[in-house]
Amino acid sequence: MRVNLVSQAWRWVARRCSTRAMQGKKSADMRRGLVAVAALSALAGCATVQPDPTMPRVALDTTAGTMVLALDAAAAPITTCNFISYVVTGDYEGGTFFRTVSRETNTASRYPIDVIQAATPRGSDDASRPPITLERTRDTGLRHTAGAVSMARDGPDSATSSFFIVTQDTPSLDFGGGRNPDGQGFAAFGAVVQGLDVARRIQRMPANSDEQLTTPVTIRSARLLDAAPAVCTRSMRP
């Protein structure tokens, strides 16, 4: 929107300046044109889309680069609020992306996946907060497409802090998919909106036969960029 408005303003200036130049009034029209540019730029600023309060963003600064996640509090409020609670208390700082899985290396599985998994410094079994109810993709409408952010789990209601990022469409992670034998799928709750290339770069890093990165990627910081959704304020606690 901003680019279109400013571009139109400059075309207006060019046309007007050309006409006035032939009439010997180029200087006066340039002033009018600059006023028009300023006015249209201000209008474009007013038209800037404001952040969706139900889609808060989180910036993950890692040793491999920065990723920005947009979380869907409207579709998956329980999972989103749980994740934000770990973010705002600094639990992910010093944690790592420690696991990489790809279709090329996961050939032994009937349902190969493309993901990188992260955990707090306390590890993937960190349960410093109670486990949360599984928000199934059947109910949320979210899917494990490229860039999706989702919670790692064992049983259906066992997720705590460990999460993963999907680097390629992986429907076997959705409800009814076969990656988890119980068929309940995993709780997708957001997507990478900046830095998916960083996630894919992490996925390609050397790993051992147990899918553990040879050199884990450290999470330097995890920052909430927008206000926490209203639905989360009651559930978050130190």
Describe this structure in words.
Strands 1-2-7-5-6-4-3-8 form an eight-stranded antiparallel barrel. It folds into two domains: 2-46; 57-233, Cyclophilin, CATH 2.40.100.10. Helix 1 packs antiparallel against helix 2. The chain has six helices and eight strands, in the order H-H-E-E-H-E-E-H-E-E-E-H-E-H. It is 29% helix and 22% strand. The radius of gyration is 24 Å and the shape is globular. The chain has 238 residues and is an alpha+beta fold. A hairpin with a 2-residue loop joins strand 1 and strand 2 (65-71).
List keywords for this structure.
single chain, 238 residues, Cyclophilin, 2 domains, eight-stranded antiparallel β-barrel, 6 helices, 29% helix, 22% strand
Present the secondary structure layout:
Blueprint: H1 2-22, H2 26-46, E1 57-62, E2 65-71, H3 77-88, E3 96-101, E4 115-119, H4 137-140, E5 148-151, E6 163-166, E7 188-194, H5 196-203, E8 212-224, H6 230-233
Antiparallel strand pairs: 1-2, 1-8, 2-7, 3-4, 3-8, 4-6, 5-6, 5-7
Summed up:
By secondary structure, the chain is α+β, with helices and mostly antiparallel strands. It has helices at 2-22, 26-46, 77-88, 137-140, 196-203, 230-233; strands at 57-62, 65-71, 96-101, 115-119, 148-151, 163-166, 188-194, 212-224.
